[in-house]
Structure formats: structure tokens, C-alpha cells
Amino acid sequence: MTQPALELDGVSKVHPSPAGDVHALRDVDLALYPGELVAVMGPSGSGKSTLLNMAGGLDAPTSGDVRIGGTSIVGIGQKEMASLRRRSVGFVFQDLNLVPALTAVENASLPLELDGKGLRAARAAGLEALDAVGLADLADRYPEEMSGGQQQRVAIARSLVGERRVVLADEPTGALDSVTGEEVLMVLRQRCDAGAAVLLVTHDSRHASWADRIVNLRDGAVVGIVGDEPAPFAETAATRSHGATSVTAATTQGRA
Questions:
Q1: How many domains does the chain have?
Q2: What is the pLDDT of residues 33-59, one digit of tens each?
Q3: How far apart are CA 130 and CA 111, in angstroms?
Q4: What is this structure's pTM?
């Protein structure tokens, strides 16, 4: 079996409160492999965003371990974590976090520039990422000159730029129409087929149907997983077919 691109091992997150501790995550075990798209579903407050924050090192677990490419990120320094995120982890946030003063291509290529890549090479990679989401012709526009859906695709391009091994997407199609949303999911699927691992938080069962596995969360705990861990990547990529996961089964198991 190929080494997991991302692992959560017994991860819990507890927020102390005078009224009683709030358990945002409860002993979560999850592994994502290269070439795999995993969808996370659950009601509001179930811990989906907390799980993404743990996976990307934006927050530290109360207990348990998080590993990216086999390397534990729990307890490492802020500079080392920032460098690891720029090189290995792409984020797609609900609020986009685009820089208003930068053009689309400058926003997309920003992680590479921050990591020391030359301006020309970074711009070329940014243009390639924008082309992948159908926005190459808007490369020199600023966020305020684009629609909400176009801004969302710029944010997705930024998460794909370079050689990110892990992409964490929090409702990446929330601001998009159904057609554009399907196109974005196809981009994420293609990124998986190229060897990345994608963790997708979604409320939409149609979008979850693109996933190889569906993880159901409730009250911070995994209450159901549909789909088996993959065979080695080469076999997985050769045999995968879109829509193989049953969302109905995922929902049923999540309620068990």
C-alpha cells in the first residue's frame, strides 16, 4: 500500500468551557491516499471544519497525531508549518481569502512566490492553475472585477498551484452555479488522478458522489464510512470510475 498523503490518528479537539467541555472532534482516525478524493458530510456543528483545520495544521489537536506524507505536524514550529503548507497543502476556504490588491494570476501564484520561486516561474504555474479552472483569460483581473463564482475558481486555482500533495476544500462550490460547480469538482477529480489526495467538505450529496469514500461526522465523531481504502495508487487510478460511491448508502450508514 502506498504511504498515506494525510493521516489523522486518534485526533480529538476539546474546547474548555465554564458550562462544560465542548468536544469538537472525538478520537477521529482517517487516512487519505494519493489519488483519492474523500468527502466529509454531516450536519452543521458536526466537526467538519474542525477536521479540516486539524488536517492542515491551522489548529492543534488536544490529543492524537496528524501526519502529512508520513511526517507528524503536531508540535512543529510556526515557520516550519507555514513552509509545509505552502509546498504540500492547498486550502479552499468558504470565505476565499483572496488578496484584493492582487490580480487573479498573482493570487494563484502567491504561495509559490512566498516559498521563494522566481516571479516568472511562479506566474507560469499560476496561469496553468487558472487554465485548469477555466479562467486563463481573466488572469489580469482583480477580485472586485470578477463574479463570486469566478473568485471561487481563483481560490481553487491557488490551492492547486505547484506540487501540492494534499488539497483541503471546505464547500468549494458554495458560490457556484450547478454547471460551474460540476466543472470545479472535475478539476479536483483530475488533481486526484494526477496523484494528489483531496479532502472535500460538502453538504451536497451530488458533489459527494464524486468521492471514493464518504465519511459521515456527527457530534465530532465518525459515525460511518462508505467505501474501502484504496489499492496502491497505480491500480486505483486505472480502475476508478466516477460516481461509484453510493451516497444513499452513506446517508443510511451515517444514521446508524
A1: 1
A2: 999 999 999 999 999 999 999 999 999
A3: 14
A4: 0.82
